[in-house]
Amino acid sequence: MKLGIRLKFTLFLAVLLLLSIGLLSAFVLRGIQGNQTAQIEDVLARQTQLANLRLRQEYYTETPREDGLVFYKREGVRLANELADLTGMPVTLYARDRSVLGSSVRTVRAGLTEPEGAGTESLDYALAGSIAYFRQGADGGTILYFAPVEGPQGQLGAIRFDYPIDSYLSFYQAIRRLFLIVGGAVAAAAFLLGYAYYSRFATAILKLKASADRIRMGQFLTEEPLARRDELGELGRGITYMSGEIRRNMAGLEDERSKLAQAVERLQALEHRQKQYIGNISHEFKTPLTTIKAYTELLGMYPDDPQLLGEARVSIDKEAHRLYEMVEKVLRLSALERYDFELEASEVDAAAALHDVAARMRGKAEQFGVTLEIRVKPSTVWCDAESFMHIFTNLLDNAIKYNRLGGTAKVEGGPVEEAVRLVVSSTGLSIPEEAREKIFEPFYTVNKDRARLSGGSGLGLSLVKRLLEAQGGRIELLRTEGEGASFELIFPAVQPKLSAD
After folding, report:
1. CA–CA separation, 349 vs 53, rounded Å?
2. SS3 of 439, please?
3. Which of 90, 163, 294, 321 has its Cα between 20 and 30 A from that of 408?
4. pLDDT digits (tens, 9 = 90+) for 261-317
């Protein structure tokens, strides 16, 4: 049988109260017994003193010269009756040989000897000069009290008082019954009150259990289950807080699961891109290598042909330079994938850096018949200086190579709100609409024949985008009317420092 918590608490309280009342009753009743015993002994001791004083008074009044033992034997019956009237208790006088000198008890006659038993043992104590008593009867309602009797020449015998203690026993039994009745009533009342009181706690605990079950089933709490200010209320608030934490953790786990799924998708896409990247790079490397291999075979067949030798030198140099650029850009892209942490951002003067890039690219621009223009307002960007140079070197290189003879490649812009906006534009080839989404993919070129003629690898814009994103910026191909292409670049600007007054 399974007991509920409220019944367990109530039974525990009832048992505790019964135990407390039982111990209290035992101590009180023992105290009453001790007090009654002390009262009885005090009363009987005083009666003994009074009897001895009365006996000596009778002796000295009647025959002071007569032997005390002879006097007591002769007057024993009278003296016993007088002492009984004086003390209000039955009295029996004994000689030293345990014979009865006189008694107010009708069943005890003078001259008789006390029979062997408890009375004889107590009488012997009294004849030896000590006090002794015991309870007589089936209910113990009478105390037989023995004490020595002193005469003029010493102890003459002993005296016995038959002291009824029915009133004491009745009082003791009344107190005992009172404890039983009161104890039972208190225990019953405590059980009922305790059951009602602990029912509130049991109800609160059951509510907490129900709340825990709801959390276990995934139904999280929106409010506290108990409106209390005690420990149970604190426990309820703790369960509510725990429910919120579990809900947040589960939401976090779900978010992490979603992120993990996205990461897996990205890894799969990256794997696909990697395979495509390897295929593209193999194809792109194969074209110049095929050209170089073809010219080396021709030179082996016609080593003395001066025209072939000149063409081979120009073509091999061009293809080797193209291979070198592709390898350099591939390595840089690979480094960006793995070593972004090596970029060190600092304050870069955009105008000065762009004029430096233009100075380096001016020779190539003259070779292609293109004019370079830098129209940048004074601005400072937060960027890795080397990456900044690579970005605009690649963009201006494309603007020159894919331009027309007599065309223009320019950079313009300046600060815009909390950023720096720079636009690189050219008057050369325009980029068709279907190529806008692919222009930043590795090895993608709008015109492959033109790219081969100019030495393009299709890696420049991909590298530019990666470098710019690593700086916290972005690049976008702008829509233009007519020929040419324009790229918008956004860099984080360096905020001016406020001077302290």
Report:
1. 134
2. coil
3. 321
4. 888 887 887 676 666 556 555 555 665 676 777 778 777 777 777 887 887 777 777
